[in-house]
Amino acid sequence: MSLDHCKIINLPKISDPRGNLTFIEGGNHIPFDIQRVYYLYDVPGGAERGGHAHKNLHQLIIAMSGSFDVVLDDGGQKKRYHLNRSYQGLYVCSMIWRELDNFSSGSVCMVLASNKYDEDDYYRNYSEFLLAKGIDQ
């Protein structure tokens, strides 16, 4: 997989004077069924999250409140995304290294995942990730 497979997905947004509503249906708005949802919040200023890749897991990363950056790396190129709209999500396929940083105060990052938690699905060492992709260091 490469960065060409990762993209911003615009989610349905129903506008109403009383407030907006966005919904997500797995297999419809995103290319996987949702098996797990988790969120990051109260991230201290200057802190980074992520720093890993997944062997099989697919994710949609959404800034529910505030903003943050996601840096994706396929071993050949890197791309930075600034997320700050709750009706957009960043689709991240498997075998992509990801790092999250530049969290604004009060930001909330929600992640929709294609699988339940499995520690064996992680590459937590960048060199091992590159080796698995067949990239010489």
TrEMBL record:
SUPFAM superfamilies: RmlC-like cupins. Pfam families: FdtA. It comes from the Bacteria. Coiled coil: none annotated. InterPro entries: QdtA_cupin_dom, RmlC-like_jellyroll, RmlC_Cupin_sf. Residues 5-131 form the Sugar 3,4-ketoisomerase QdtA cupin domain. This is FdtA/QdtA family cupin domain-containing protein. It comes from Giesbergeria sinuosa.
